[in-house]
Specification:
With about 325 residues, the chain is of the alpha/beta class. It is built from 12 helices and 10 strands. The strands form 2 sheets. Strands 7-6-5-8-9-10 form a 6-stranded parallel sheet, with helices on both faces. Belongs to the UDP-glycosyltransferase family.
Protein backbone atom coordinates (compact mmCIF):
# COMPACT_ATOMS: atom_id res chain seq x y z
CA UNK A 1 0.00 0.00 0.00
CA UNK A 2 1.49 3.34 -1.02
CA UNK A 3 1.40 6.50 1.08
CA UNK A 4 -1.47 8.12 -0.82
CA UNK A 5 -3.71 5.08 -0.45
CA UNK A 6 -2.80 4.77 3.23
CA UNK A 7 -3.66 8.44 3.86
CA UNK A 8 -6.95 8.16 1.95
CA UNK A 9 -7.99 5.08 3.94
CA UNK A 10 -7.03 6.82 7.17
CA UNK A 11 -9.16 9.87 6.39
CA UNK A 12 -12.06 7.65 5.39
CA UNK A 13 -12.15 5.04 8.12
CA UNK A 14 -10.84 6.74 11.28
CA UNK A 15 -13.86 9.08 11.63
CA UNK A 16 -16.23 6.17 10.95
CA UNK A 17 -14.41 3.95 13.44
CA UNK A 18 -14.58 6.64 16.13
CA UNK A 19 -18.31 7.31 15.83
CA UNK A 20 -19.11 3.61 15.43
CA UNK A 21 -17.19 2.92 18.65
CA UNK A 22 -19.14 5.61 20.48
CA UNK A 23 -22.46 4.04 19.43
CA UNK A 24 -21.37 0.47 20.17
CA UNK A 25 -23.87 -1.18 22.58
CA UNK A 26 -21.09 -2.05 25.02
CA UNK A 27 -19.85 1.54 25.10
CA UNK A 28 -23.38 2.90 25.44
CA UNK A 29 -23.95 0.58 28.40
CA UNK A 30 -20.66 1.65 29.99
CA UNK A 31 -21.60 5.32 29.64
CA UNK A 32 -24.64 4.78 31.84
CA UNK A 33 -22.32 4.64 34.85
CA UNK A 34 -20.51 7.42 36.69
CA UNK A 35 -16.73 7.82 36.51
CA UNK A 36 -14.11 9.88 38.29
CA UNK A 37 -12.07 10.58 35.15
CA UNK A 38 -11.69 9.50 31.52
CA UNK A 39 -8.51 8.00 30.04
CA UNK A 40 -8.33 8.36 26.27
CA UNK A 41 -5.76 7.79 23.58
CA UNK A 42 -4.53 11.19 22.46
CA UNK A 43 -5.12 10.35 18.77
CA UNK A 44 -8.19 9.22 16.80
CA UNK A 45 -10.67 9.57 19.69
CA UNK A 46 -12.01 13.08 19.09
CA UNK A 47 -15.67 12.04 19.13
CA UNK A 48 -15.24 10.95 22.78
CA UNK A 49 -14.00 14.38 23.91
CA UNK A 50 -17.44 15.74 24.94
CA UNK A 51 -17.79 12.98 27.56
CA UNK A 52 -15.38 14.42 30.17
CA UNK A 53 -16.55 17.93 29.28
CA UNK A 54 -20.25 17.16 29.79
CA UNK A 55 -19.62 15.22 33.01
CA UNK A 56 -17.14 17.78 34.34
CA UNK A 57 -14.53 15.14 35.11
CA UNK A 58 -10.78 15.18 34.32
CA UNK A 59 -9.48 14.08 30.94
CA UNK A 60 -6.31 11.98 30.96
CA UNK A 61 -4.46 11.30 27.72
CA UNK A 62 -2.53 8.11 27.07
CA UNK A 63 -0.17 7.66 24.13
CA UNK A 64 0.71 4.34 22.44
CA UNK A 65 4.31 5.59 22.08
CA UNK A 66 6.12 8.89 22.44
CA UNK A 67 4.55 12.19 21.33
CA UNK A 68 4.21 12.99 17.64
CA UNK A 69 3.08 16.26 16.01
CA UNK A 70 0.71 17.94 16.61
CA UNK A 71 0.07 16.20 19.96
CA UNK A 72 2.70 18.11 22.00
CA UNK A 73 0.92 21.45 21.56
CA UNK A 74 -2.31 20.02 23.00
CA UNK A 75 -0.62 19.31 26.33
CA UNK A 76 1.62 22.37 26.56
CA UNK A 77 4.85 20.71 25.43
CA UNK A 78 7.22 22.70 23.17
CA UNK A 79 7.74 20.95 19.85
CA UNK A 80 11.33 21.76 18.89
CA UNK A 81 11.42 20.11 15.48
CA UNK A 82 15.10 20.96 15.00
CA UNK A 83 16.13 18.62 17.85
CA UNK A 84 13.20 16.19 18.13
CA UNK A 85 13.28 13.01 16.01
CA UNK A 86 10.21 11.97 14.06
CA UNK A 87 8.65 8.57 14.70
CA UNK A 88 7.97 7.91 11.02
CA UNK A 89 11.43 7.93 9.48
CA UNK A 90 14.98 6.76 10.19
CA UNK A 91 16.54 10.16 10.92
CA UNK A 92 18.25 9.97 14.31
CA UNK A 93 19.89 12.69 16.38
CA UNK A 94 22.20 14.60 15.81
CA UNK A 95 20.68 16.06 12.64
CA UNK A 96 22.33 17.54 9.59
CA UNK A 97 20.90 20.70 8.04
CA UNK A 98 19.06 18.66 5.40
CA UNK A 99 17.71 16.40 8.16
CA UNK A 100 16.27 19.44 9.94
CA UNK A 101 14.62 20.67 6.76
CA UNK A 102 13.09 17.22 6.24
CA UNK A 103 11.81 17.12 9.81
CA UNK A 104 10.32 20.62 9.60
CA UNK A 105 8.54 19.76 6.35
CA UNK A 106 7.30 16.45 7.77
CA UNK A 107 6.11 18.13 10.98
CA UNK A 108 4.08 20.68 9.01
CA UNK A 109 2.50 17.94 6.90
CA UNK A 110 1.73 15.82 9.98
CA UNK A 111 0.10 18.77 11.74
CA UNK A 112 -2.07 19.62 8.72
CA UNK A 113 -3.03 15.99 8.17
CA UNK A 114 -3.90 15.27 11.81
CA UNK A 115 -5.86 18.49 12.23
CA UNK A 116 -7.83 17.75 9.07
CA UNK A 117 -8.51 14.24 10.39
CA UNK A 118 -9.72 15.72 13.70
CA UNK A 119 -12.07 18.03 11.81
CA UNK A 120 -13.49 15.16 9.77
CA UNK A 121 -14.16 13.19 12.95
CA UNK A 122 -15.68 16.27 14.60
CA UNK A 123 -17.99 16.94 11.64
CA UNK A 124 -19.07 13.30 11.47
CA UNK A 125 -19.88 13.32 15.20
CA UNK A 126 -22.05 16.41 14.65
CA UNK A 127 -23.82 14.77 11.70
CA UNK A 128 -24.53 11.69 13.83
CA UNK A 129 -25.87 13.87 16.69
CA UNK A 130 -23.05 12.67 18.93
CA UNK A 131 -21.59 16.11 19.68
CA UNK A 132 -23.58 18.07 22.30
CA UNK A 133 -24.59 21.55 21.17
CA UNK A 134 -23.12 23.06 24.34
CA UNK A 135 -19.70 21.45 23.77
CA UNK A 136 -16.90 23.66 22.40
CA UNK A 137 -14.99 23.12 19.18
CA UNK A 138 -12.92 19.93 18.93
CA UNK A 139 -9.61 21.80 19.19
CA UNK A 140 -10.72 23.61 22.35
CA UNK A 141 -11.64 20.29 23.95
CA UNK A 142 -8.32 18.73 22.96
CA UNK A 143 -6.62 21.32 25.20
CA UNK A 144 -8.55 20.32 28.32
CA UNK A 145 -6.43 17.40 29.56
CA UNK A 146 -5.26 17.27 33.17
CA UNK A 147 -2.62 14.56 32.78
CA UNK A 148 -0.77 12.72 30.01
CA UNK A 149 0.69 9.22 30.29
CA UNK A 150 3.35 8.47 27.68
CA UNK A 151 4.27 4.90 26.75
CA UNK A 152 7.98 5.58 26.44
CA UNK A 153 11.09 5.53 28.62
CA UNK A 154 12.32 9.09 28.93
CA UNK A 155 15.91 8.07 29.59
CA UNK A 156 15.94 6.30 26.20
CA UNK A 157 14.64 9.33 24.29
CA UNK A 158 17.48 11.39 22.91
CA UNK A 159 17.64 14.27 23.19
CA UNK A 160 15.22 14.54 26.10
CA UNK A 161 12.67 17.31 25.63
CA UNK A 162 11.35 19.51 28.46
CA UNK A 163 8.08 18.24 29.94
CA UNK A 164 5.54 19.86 32.27
CA UNK A 165 4.88 18.14 35.63
CA UNK A 166 1.56 16.70 34.45
CA UNK A 167 3.29 14.42 31.93
CA UNK A 168 4.21 10.94 33.20
CA UNK A 169 6.43 8.47 31.35
CA UNK A 170 5.21 4.90 31.84
CA UNK A 171 7.15 2.93 29.22
CA UNK A 172 7.80 -0.65 30.32
CA UNK A 173 5.06 -0.65 32.94
CA UNK A 174 3.50 -3.64 31.17
CA UNK A 175 6.58 -5.82 31.71
CA UNK A 176 5.71 -8.53 34.19
CA UNK A 177 7.56 -10.99 36.34
CA UNK A 178 8.79 -14.09 34.52
CA UNK A 179 6.35 -17.01 34.44
CA UNK A 180 7.42 -20.62 33.69
CA UNK A 181 6.75 -21.74 30.13
CA UNK A 182 4.43 -24.62 29.28
CA UNK A 183 6.31 -27.91 29.52
CA UNK A 184 6.21 -28.84 25.83
CA UNK A 185 7.42 -25.39 24.75
CA UNK A 186 10.01 -25.22 27.53
CA UNK A 187 11.39 -28.67 26.62
CA UNK A 188 11.61 -27.70 22.93
CA UNK A 189 13.54 -24.51 23.73
CA UNK A 190 15.73 -26.18 26.36
CA UNK A 191 16.71 -28.76 23.74
CA UNK A 192 18.17 -26.07 21.45
CA UNK A 193 21.70 -26.84 22.67
CA UNK A 194 24.59 -24.39 22.57
CA UNK A 195 23.27 -22.80 19.36
CA UNK A 196 20.16 -21.58 21.17
CA UNK A 197 17.03 -20.36 19.44
CA UNK A 198 15.58 -17.37 17.58
CA UNK A 199 12.20 -15.85 18.38
CA UNK A 200 10.27 -14.43 15.42
CA UNK A 201 7.11 -12.36 15.85
CA UNK A 202 5.45 -9.63 13.81
CA UNK A 203 3.09 -8.64 16.60
CA UNK A 204 -0.69 -8.61 16.44
CA UNK A 205 -1.15 -6.14 13.59
CA UNK A 206 0.56 -8.12 10.82
CA UNK A 207 -1.56 -11.00 9.53
CA UNK A 208 -0.47 -13.87 7.23
CA UNK A 209 -2.54 -12.44 4.39
CA UNK A 210 -0.45 -9.25 4.58
CA UNK A 211 2.77 -11.08 3.74
CA UNK A 212 3.97 -11.64 0.18
CA UNK A 213 4.15 -15.43 -0.41
CA UNK A 214 7.63 -14.96 -1.88
CA UNK A 215 8.82 -13.33 1.35
CA UNK A 216 7.26 -16.15 3.35
CA UNK A 217 8.94 -18.87 1.31
CA UNK A 218 12.30 -17.12 1.62
CA UNK A 219 11.96 -16.89 5.39
CA UNK A 220 10.99 -20.57 5.70
CA UNK A 221 13.96 -21.59 3.54
CA UNK A 222 16.39 -19.43 5.51
CA UNK A 223 15.08 -20.56 8.89
CA UNK A 224 15.44 -24.19 7.80
CA UNK A 225 19.12 -23.62 6.95
CA UNK A 226 20.01 -22.20 10.37
CA UNK A 227 21.73 -24.06 13.19
CA UNK A 228 19.42 -22.42 15.70
CA UNK A 229 15.87 -23.43 16.37
CA UNK A 230 13.23 -20.87 15.42
CA UNK A 231 10.07 -20.31 17.45
CA UNK A 232 7.65 -18.39 15.24
CA UNK A 233 4.42 -16.64 16.18
CA UNK A 234 2.20 -17.29 13.17
CA UNK A 235 -1.55 -17.81 12.87
CA UNK A 236 -1.78 -20.05 9.80
CA UNK A 237 -0.38 -23.40 8.74
CA UNK A 238 2.84 -23.58 6.73
CA UNK A 239 3.46 -26.60 4.52
CA UNK A 240 6.77 -28.47 4.65
CA UNK A 241 7.92 -26.69 7.79
CA UNK A 242 11.60 -27.44 8.58
CA UNK A 243 12.16 -29.60 11.70
CA UNK A 244 13.99 -26.80 13.52
CA UNK A 245 11.03 -24.41 13.16
CA UNK A 246 7.99 -24.37 15.42
CA UNK A 247 4.95 -22.14 14.85
CA UNK A 248 2.13 -21.14 17.18
CA UNK A 249 -0.74 -18.67 16.90
CA UNK A 250 0.03 -17.36 20.39
CA UNK A 251 3.24 -17.30 22.41
CA UNK A 252 4.16 -15.81 25.81
CA UNK A 253 6.60 -13.29 24.36
CA UNK A 254 8.08 -11.89 27.56
CA UNK A 255 8.67 -15.33 29.05
CA UNK A 256 10.37 -16.49 25.85
CA UNK A 257 12.60 -13.39 25.84
CA UNK A 258 13.61 -14.26 29.41
CA UNK A 259 14.78 -17.75 28.39
CA UNK A 260 18.56 -18.12 28.82
CA UNK A 261 19.07 -19.79 25.42
CA UNK A 262 17.53 -17.06 23.27
CA UNK A 263 20.02 -15.60 20.78
CA UNK A 264 17.95 -13.17 18.71
CA UNK A 265 14.51 -11.65 18.32
CA UNK A 266 13.23 -10.92 14.80
CA UNK A 267 10.51 -8.32 15.13
CA UNK A 268 8.47 -5.70 13.28
CA UNK A 269 9.71 -3.19 15.85
CA UNK A 270 6.53 -2.41 17.76
CA UNK A 271 7.02 -0.30 20.87
CA UNK A 272 6.16 -3.11 23.31
CA UNK A 273 8.43 -5.61 21.57
CA UNK A 274 11.29 -3.11 21.52
CA UNK A 275 10.86 -2.28 25.20
CA UNK A 276 10.73 -5.96 26.15
CA UNK A 277 13.84 -6.80 24.11
CA UNK A 278 15.61 -3.90 25.83
CA UNK A 279 14.57 -5.13 29.27
CA UNK A 280 15.65 -8.73 28.65
CA UNK A 281 18.83 -7.68 26.78
CA UNK A 282 17.99 -9.61 23.62
CA UNK A 283 19.60 -8.55 20.30
CA UNK A 284 17.12 -7.55 17.61
CA UNK A 285 16.77 -7.94 13.86
CA UNK A 286 14.07 -5.45 12.92
CA UNK A 287 11.82 -5.55 9.86
CA UNK A 288 9.73 -2.39 10.39
CA UNK A 289 6.47 -2.08 8.48
CA UNK A 290 5.11 1.41 9.20
CA UNK A 291 4.80 4.38 11.57
CA UNK A 292 6.82 4.29 14.82
CA UNK A 293 8.32 0.88 14.03
CA UNK A 294 10.70 2.63 11.61
CA UNK A 295 12.19 4.91 14.28
CA UNK A 296 12.08 2.23 16.99
CA UNK A 297 14.36 0.02 14.91
CA UNK A 298 16.50 2.96 13.73
CA UNK A 299 17.24 3.75 17.38
CA UNK A 300 18.08 0.10 18.08
CA UNK A 301 20.57 0.14 15.18
CA UNK A 302 22.13 3.41 16.34
CA UNK A 303 22.52 2.09 19.89
CA UNK A 304 24.36 -0.93 18.50
CA UNK A 305 22.25 -3.85 19.70
CA UNK A 306 20.40 -4.69 16.51
CA UNK A 307 20.14 -4.49 12.75
CA UNK A 308 17.41 -3.59 10.30
CA UNK A 309 15.97 -5.09 7.12
CA UNK A 310 13.49 -3.63 4.66
CA UNK A 311 10.61 -5.78 3.47
CA UNK A 312 11.31 -5.00 -0.17
CA UNK A 313 14.82 -6.40 0.26
CA UNK A 314 14.02 -9.46 2.34
CA UNK A 315 15.42 -11.97 -0.08
CA UNK A 316 17.60 -14.92 0.73
CA UNK A 317 21.03 -13.31 0.32
CA UNK A 318 20.06 -10.30 2.47
CA UNK A 319 18.15 -12.25 5.11
CA UNK A 320 21.12 -14.55 5.64
Amino acid sequence: MNGATFAKNFLTYVPISCTDSLTDPGVEEALKHDYDYVIMQIMFTECFLPIPFSRKIPLIYATPNTLTPPDPEYIGVPNFVSITPSRTNEITFPFSFSDKLTLIFESILAKLFMEYLSKLTYYRAIEENLWPSEAPDVFDLKLQSSLTIINSVRALEYPMRPMPPNVIYAGGIHIKEFQPLQKDLCDWLDDSGDEGFIFFSLGTGIKPEHIDPNHLSVMVEVFGSLKQKVIWKWSSEIEDLPPNVKISSWLPQQDILAHPKIKLMITHGGIFSTQEATYYEVPVLGIPIYYDQIMNIAEVVKEGWGRSLKWEGTYKRIFL
